[in-house]
Automatic annotation (TrEMBL):
It comes from the Bacteria. Gene3D superfamilies: FAD/NAD(P)-binding domain. Keywords: Flavoprotein, Oxidoreductase. Pfam families: Pyr_redox_2 (PF07992). GO terms for molecular function: oxidoreductase activity. InterPro entries: FAD/NAD-bd_sf, FAD/NAD-binding_dom, Ferredoxin-NADP_redctase_2. This is Thioredoxin reductase. The lineage of its organism: Bacteria, Pseudomonadati, Thermodesulfobacteriota, Thermodesulfobacteria, Thermodesulfobacteriales. Residues 5-284 form the FAD/NAD(P)-binding domain. The keyword Kinase does not apply.
Amino acid sequence: MIDIYDVAIIGAGPAGLQAAIHAARRRVKTIIAGKIEASALYRAHLENYFGLPGKKEGKEVLEAGLTQAQNFGAEHLPLDVVKVELRDHYFYLELEDGRKINSFTLIIATGVSRRKSKIKGEKELIGKGVSYCVDCDGFFFRGLPVAVIGNGSAAAHGALTLKKIASEVYLISPKLNISKSLKNDLEKENIKIFSAKPKEILGEKEVEGLLLEDGQKLQIKGIFIEEGAKGALQLATSLGVMLDPENMTYIQVDKAQKTNVPGVFAAGDVCGPPFQVAKAVGEGCIAGLNAADEANQRRKQHEN
């Protein structure tokens, strides 16, 4: 039996937690899926937020926000969402441990990926063996050795998918952070995990190998960079959510934080700059209130 919620929130950063607080206060069944550690605020400091003088640790603020949301009745699963679909009356979510959720409404508040550095040779070999989408390009490496770089569930799932296609799959993950069940799946498929950081992608006209910081050299033909959780844009576009037409980098929403897909809302950095906690919290508030109201309407229609 799959649990049914009124509001499901993907992302446990400022926008997602604020959305959960307001939705739960409306007394609708609310769940947050995501790790607070994945938020950009977790390892940062906050000193420009109204009512919080001085410098506050982001981790402290997020933990307090999560507790606040839970005190209002919101549930929290510190797991990544790997699949989202619209099925009948519900949004169907599948989590990295295989758990499944149905919800009347959905709020995407995953933030955006911020890469601090590029791997040497990465830029030069994009499209020549370097890819950012296993689902898009995996088939081109059928029968060839490949590597997946990343620390989250997207990288693990990417490696498992490629295992069915490639001759050999390596997972390069200095700080692997996935569920126990996902680790077990990697072990069952004999996917070798390297904890050393990638130093350089080798090759001139195409990928020929990967050099790790500990000196190991992997002979591979393809490299898939899958950092963090399942990309917010990938989850959103799988539902038909429209992106900002100017740069196709952020989710397009209206003043109510609604997307073009009925029942789907978005809030925070995933909606574009400025990347400020105050903006994320404000959008989370709007999304949470409106998602709760719409969930009530959808539940009544379903019951009738």
